[in-house]
Amino acid sequence: MFRLVIVTFFCASLLPTNNGEGTTVEMIPGKFIDCSTLRMGQFLCPDPSYDLVDPKTQQIRGCTKENKAKINCLAVEGLTCQETYNRTFTKEVSCKWTNGYSFETSLLLSIFLGMFGIDRFYLGYPAIGLAKFCTLGFMFLGQLVDIILISTQVVGPQDGSAYVMPFYGPGVEVIYSDNSTYRLRQDNW
User: Fold this and answer.
1) Distances (CA, A) of 72 to 54, 60, 90, 91, 98
2) Which residue from 110, 127, 130, 131 is spatially nearest to 119, judged by alpha carbons?
3) Residues 13, 26, 79, CA angle at the centre, nearest 5°?
4) The Cα angle at residue 100 between residues 94 and 106, in degrees rounded to 5
5) CA dist., res. 61 & res. 71, Å (int)
C-alpha cells in the first residue's frame, strides 16, 4: 500500500498541469533550470509576441534612469525555467533612458534660433540660453559651436537623459578611457 502511494504521486508529477495562464507546465522533477544562466542560442529575446519598442520614446519599453530594462525572453523547446515554471523568463538589458527631448527638434532650434539661445532653453540650460540671448549667440560663434556640439550629441538634455530619435537613428555610443582602463598583458607575449 505504501509503495502504491509513492508511485501514484510520482506519476502524477509527470503529468502536465495548468499554471493559471492557460499554458501547460511540464512538472518533471529535476528538469527546472535557472534561465538567467542560459547561453546564446538557448533563448530568444524578445519573445516574438512582445512589442519591444515604445513608439513614444523609440527605446525599449520599461527603460529606467539606470539605463536598464527587463524584457520577456523565451527559452528553447525542452527547457523549463524555475522562475516561471514554463519557457518564458525576464532578462535585464541595457537601454537609453529618454525624457522626451527630440534630437531633430534641438538641432533645428540650434540652427535657426540658436543665436537667441532657444536651443539651450529647450535642453534645460537657462543660464547659457540667457547669455546667448543677450550676446546674440556670442556673436554667432556660440551658435556655430552649439550646432556642432548638438549634432555630435556631446551636449544633451540637462537631466541626463538621451535624445528621442528613431530606433535605428544616428545614435552615438561614447567610450571613455582613463588610467584605470588598460590592456592586460597576455601570458604568451
Assistant:
1) 14, 11, 5, 6, 21
2) 110
3) 130
4) 110
5) 8
Split at pLDDT 50, 70, 90, the class of 184 is low
* Residue 71: exposure state from Cβ atoms within 10 A (0-12, 13-18, ≥19): middle
pLDDT band (50, 70, 90) for residue 173 = confident
Does residue 85 contact residue 23 with C-beta atoms inside 8 Å?
no
d(CA 117, CA 137): 7
Which three three-digit cell numbers place residue 19?
Answer: 499554471
Per-residue model confidence as pLDDT tens digits over 27-60? 454 578 888 888 888 888 876 566 788 888 888 8
Please tell me whether the peptide bond between 16 and the residue prior to it is cis, using omega within 30 degrees of 0: no
Is 60 exceeded by the pLDDT of residue 19?
A: no
Structure-block grid coordinates of residue 76: 528553447
| Stated pTM of the model | 0.64
DSSP 124-142: T-HHHHHHHHHTHHHHTHH
